[in-house]
Write a structure and sequence with these properties.
The protein is α/β, with parallel strands linked by helices. It folds into two domains: about 190 residues, P-loop containing nucleotide triphosphate hydrolases (Rossmann fold, 3-Layer(aba) Sandwich); about 55 residues. Helices cover about 45% and strands about 15% of the residues. The protein is built from ten helices and seven strands. A hairpin with a 4-residue loop joins strand 1 and strand 2. The radius of gyration is 23 Å and the shape is globular. The N and C termini lie far apart (about 65 Å).
Length: about 280
């Protein structure tokens, strides 16, 4: 009978562990300069090699580069800095810029750690902040890519704690950078619809719109001109020492963007990837 009871207790314990997995121990943040947050069970997975481009290769966004780099360096050195929202056109280097300024800080020997959290995991951000706040010898750039919310989405409430909400507030060694295609993190038609149907139109969307107001920095990214697009392509050619006649490069680059129906930094890189492959240049 005792053996049967022990077996039953072991099964119950195993079932409870599956329902509420034991969190992994917090890392010492010496394994890597970047981590990805995974909940259930809570763990920070180190990223040995971050997928990024050099800051000098991000062309056509000079003002955003200067502002975000200065803000990042201030924070990494322990000074005042703002949370930042990078919003605007797709493929114009928002995510690449965040990863590039982090690389610049690390290259200067500053103790800045990049931590990526997915939008769907924002509900667990309080537990993540508790872990990061205890690592007093490091400073953390919390990064949420492609952030946006629908009308029935409540994840944005968790994000407010990172920005400036809650009794305890955000740990002093954590800053948040987010990217989004939307300046107010929700579709314009949703804002207009809620305003038109609400009893108090201003209050109907104020809570969600106010989320973007909590970012101290708003950096807008707009579609690039053809000259900027061609400068991006030339910049990649120079960086990888790919030699090609200027007229031939221009003609091929323009034809490529025409087939894609638009111009952006992403389209410039995709063209260069194809060009490098045809010319036997390894990336």
């Amino acid at each position: 009978m005792k053996d049967m009871n022990d077996t039953a207790l072991e099964r119950i314990a195993a079932a409870l562990e599956r329902l509420a997995p034991v969190p992994h121990p917090a890392p010492r943040f010496t394994e890597a300069a970047a981590y990805v947050w995974h909940p259930d069970p809570d763990r920070l997975e180190p990223v040995e090699t971050v997928n990024r481009v050099d800051l000098v290769q991000l062309i056509g966004i000079d003002r955003a580069k200067d502002i975000l780099l200065a803000n990042t360096m201030q924070f990494a050195r322990g000074y005042g800095a703002n949370n930042a929202l990078l919003w605007g056109a797709r493929g114009m280097g928002k995510s690449s810029l965040v990863k590039a300024v982090h690389a610049e800080a690390v290259a200067q020997g500053l103790p800045l750690v990049l931590v990526e959290i997915a939008r769907e995991d924002l509900g667990s951000v309080g537990r993540l902040l508790a872990i990061l706040g205890n690592a007093k010898d490091r400073r953390f750039l919390l990064f949420s890519d492609d952030l946006s919310f629908s009308h029935d989405d409540t994840q944005y409430k968790s994000l407010k704690a990172v920005l400036d909400g809650g009794i305890s507030g955000r740990p002093a060694n954590v800053i948040l950078y987010a990217t989004s295609n939307r300046r107010h993190l929700m579709p314009r038609d949703m804002i207009d619809n809620e305003r038109s149907t609400a009893i108090h139109p201003g209050e109907a969307v104020e809570e969600k719109v106010s989320l973007s107001d909590r970012f101290g920095l708003w950096l807008g990214f707009h579609p690039c001109s053809q000259d900027e697009y061609l400068a991006m392509v030339q910049g990649y050619c120079d960086a990888y020492d790919l030699r090609i006649e200027a007229e031939e490069l221009r003609a091929e680059a323009v034809e490529w963007q025409a087939t894609r129906g638009g111009r952006s930094g992403r389209v410039a890189w995709q063209f260069f990837t194809d060009l490098a492959g045809r010319h036997g240049v390894a990336l």
